[in-house]
Write a structure and sequence with these properties.
The chain is an alpha/beta fold. The protein is built from eleven helices and eight strands. Helix 2 packs across helix 11 (about 265-275) and helix 3 (about 60-70) runs parallel beside helix 4. The longest helix is centred in the middle third of the chain and has 15 residues, at about 110-125.
């Protein structure tokens, strides 16, 4: 399997009324597990990496690892840079073979955000690479999560129209009350705002901070145009819980065995999100 441009997956989701789950993947074990479950359930998926994963391996190393594992599967998938913090990192991922990139300048002034995304589109589009931007800012729900920063600011529909026209982004991450991390109280989504954004724009919309979102809210968000749902915290929490249990045994097992069992904890999380987004059977 070769990774596809993310736009190929999102446009199908937009046309058929479901969303593609995008999973944060930090190593080969998790990547293989996600693709294995996706293939069994015949679901398209998006594999995401960010600057935090690149502390473990460079973008070129990550992309090489991801391509090697993908060769054992036939499920449609995209390889995506999530929350790219700089133009330099975006360019590095484009050169490494990522099929989708996000430059996150959402916490910066509008003009700086738009100008930078125009540059990314100029680099990416001639190579068939999808570009995701963020307008409004999705902050943190807790003090532990590494994604995002500070408080959220909501996306304005009229500004979203201008942003898409000025940047040429293929997908737009919006802020409607969602946040990264573990919700300390149930999120309050502004569905009227989301409906207004959907009515005014045509590109697929992206929900950051999927973990912990109530099922009914998620389904309603998808019905109003969310085509990509990002999942990170639930994956890391599942592995951490399972690994803690393994390492706290009176007689700990051989470490590779413990890691194998811990990564198997990813399976029900991936299954849950494939079914919840309506992606099962879409491949």
């Amino acid at each position: 399997m070769n990774y596809l441009p993310m736009d190929d997956l999102l446009r199908d989701a937009q046309r058929r009324g479901y969303a593609v789950p995008a999973f944060c993947v930090w190593n080969s074990d998790v990547l293989a597990t996600v693709l294995r479950v996706a293939e069994r359930l015949r679901a398209p998926v998006i594999i995401m990496a960010s600057k935090f994963e690149f502390a473990l391996m460079t973008p070129a190393m990550y992309a090489g690892m991801a391509r090697g594992i993908a060769g054992h599967f036939s499920v449609p998938a995209a390889l995506h840079l999530d929350h790219g913090p700089s133009l330099e990192m975006v360019r590095e991922c484009i050169d490494a073979g990522f099929t989708s990139v996000m430059l996150d300048y959402s916490a910066r002034p509008y003009d700086e955000n738009a100008a930078a995304l125009r540059q990314v589109a100029a680099w990416a589009h001639p190579r068939g690479i999808t570009v995701e931007g963020e307008l409004g800012h999705v902050g943190k729900a807790d003090t532990i999560t590494v994604e995002g920063e500070g408080d959220s600011t909501l996306t304005r529909p009229e500004e979203a129209v201008r942003y898409i026209e000025e940047t040429g982004v293929d997908a737009l991450a919006v802020s409607i009350g969602n946040a990264h991390g573990t919700y300390t109280c149930l999120p309050s989504f502004d569905f009227d705002r989301l409906a207004a954004i959907r009515a005014a724009t045509t590109v697929p919309l992206v929900l950051h901070g999927g973990s912990g979102t109530p099922d009914d809210d998620l389904r309603r968000a998808i019905s109003l145009g969310m085509c990509k749902i990002n999942v990170a915290t639930e994956l890391t929490a599942a592995v951490r819980t399972a690994l803690d249990a393994e390492l706290n045994l009176k007689n700990p097992r051989w470490l590779p065995h413990s890691l194998t069992l811990a990564h198997e904890a990813v399976v029900p999380v991936v299954e849950k999100w494939i079914y919840l987004t309506g992606a099962a059977g879409r491949a």
